[in-house]
Every structure is written in C-alpha cells, then in structure tokens.
Amino acid sequence: MIPIHELLWFASAAFLMVISPGPNMIYLISRSITQGKTAGLVSLLGVISGFLFHIVMAGFGLTAILLAVPYAYGVLKTAGAVYLLYLAYQSITPNSKTVFGLQEPIAKDKPRKLFFTGFLTNVLNPKMAVFYLSFFPQFIKPEYGSILGQSMALGITQIFISFTINFIIVLTAAKMAAFLTKNPLWVKVQKWFMASILIILAIKMVLLKAK
C-alpha cells in the first residue's frame, strides 16, 4: 500500500495538472460557457472515461517496463522532472492562457457527441500520457505491493481529484471567466503560484532515490 505522504504528493501533482491549461480544460470550459452546464457535465463524463483508458494502459505498461528494464525508473523520473519544469515555464510566459479564459462560441452538439468528443480529447491528449508514464513511477515501489495495484490506486486518486475540480469548473465556468477578465492581477498571482509549486515538485522528483 502506498504511504499516505506519498499519496498526498501525488495528489498535489494531480491537482496542478487539472488546473493547468490544456485540451481537456479548454473543451470543458468552452462547452459549459457556450452550451450550458448540462453539456459541460456530459463532456466531463467523456473526459473521465478517457482517464480510465490512460490508467489501464499506463498500469499494464509500467508493470512491464519497470520489471523488465532496470534503468527505466531513472529515465522516467528525469522525463517527469523536465516536464514539470516545462509546465512551470509555460504557465508564466506572456502568452500563456488563463485557466478560465473566455472561449469563442462553438456549435452545439448532442449529448452522445459531447461525450465521445470529451473522451477522444482526453485519450489523444499527450499531456495525460506523459503524466501517467512519467509521474506514476515516482510513487510506485515494489515493496508497496503489486505495481498494477499501485497504478490503479494512483489512477483512482487522480480521477477523483480531476472529477471534483472539473465538476466545480463546469458549474462556475461562466462566472469565473467574467471575474478573471475584471481581475487580471489574480491571474498573474495564480500563474506564478502554479509555477512555484511545479518547480518544487520537479526538485523533489529529481531528489527521489531510485528503486
């Protein structure tokens, strides 16, 4: 079983991934603002289903990689740290998007299309693939039990956090977008805070001892 303190570190990383701009966030906010909360929630169910796909693939993939290649852990750890630093840089660049930036109007779709678009948006999102393959190994150790079991535990934690945050975002997207357009200082504070936490997590990741 993964220790609680390790799970909390993972939860922090998962939280930052959820609030960082990306295809999933842009899609959910766009649907919520232009087509309403119900469309946003249907889209969210599709996105969550995409998370399940990534988790299963990563769980079986990491089990094979970490058991077959002794140096894979170090490679994945380095990749994860570099990716965190990249996200930190992206969050504070002048042209970076705010999490709740107002979206352009888009065509209205039926629930089935909303769901599958959300699913494909997540499945084809390279940020999530990198997250699972580079972050999971930092918190998985053979002495904690089954690698696949640990992967599933981390995945469930990530899904819970993602669903909770995105659910709140869907319900408040329009109000938050309007608030942020009137309070640009808050946007700057949010970006620098996010960058600082990402850098801290990257340093922690580099200092982790190899299995």
Summarize the structure.
With 211 residues, this protein is an all-alpha fold. The protein has helices at 4-19, 23-35, 37-68, 72-92, 111-123, 126-139, 147-182, 184-207.
Structure report:
With 211 residues, the chain is mainly alpha-helical. It has one domain (4-207). The protein is 80% helix and 0% strand. The chain is built from 8 helices and no strands. It has helices at residues 4-19, 23-35, 37-68, 72-92, 111-123, 126-139, 147-182, 184-207. Helix 1 crosses helix 7 and helix 3 runs antiparallel to helix 7 (147-182). The chain is globular.
Which labels suit this protein?
211 residues, mainly alpha, 80% helix, globular
From the structure provided, what is the oligomeric state, counting identical versus distinct chains?
single chain
Query: Mean pLDDT across all residues, rounded?
Result: 76
From the spread of the alpha carbons, the general shape counts as globular
Summed up, the domain count is: 1
SSE order, one letter for each helix or strand: HHHHHHHH
How many β-strand runs?
Answer: 0
Distance between the termini: 16 Å
Q: DSSP strand (E) fraction?
A: under 5%
By secondary-structure content and strand pairing, the structural class works out as: mainly alpha
Secondary structure topology:
Elements: H1 4-19, H2 23-35, H3 37-68, H4 72-92, H5 111-123, H6 126-139, H7 147-182, H8 184-207
Helix pairs in contact: 1-6, 1-7, 2-3, 2-7, 3-5, 3-6, 3-7, 4-6, 4-8
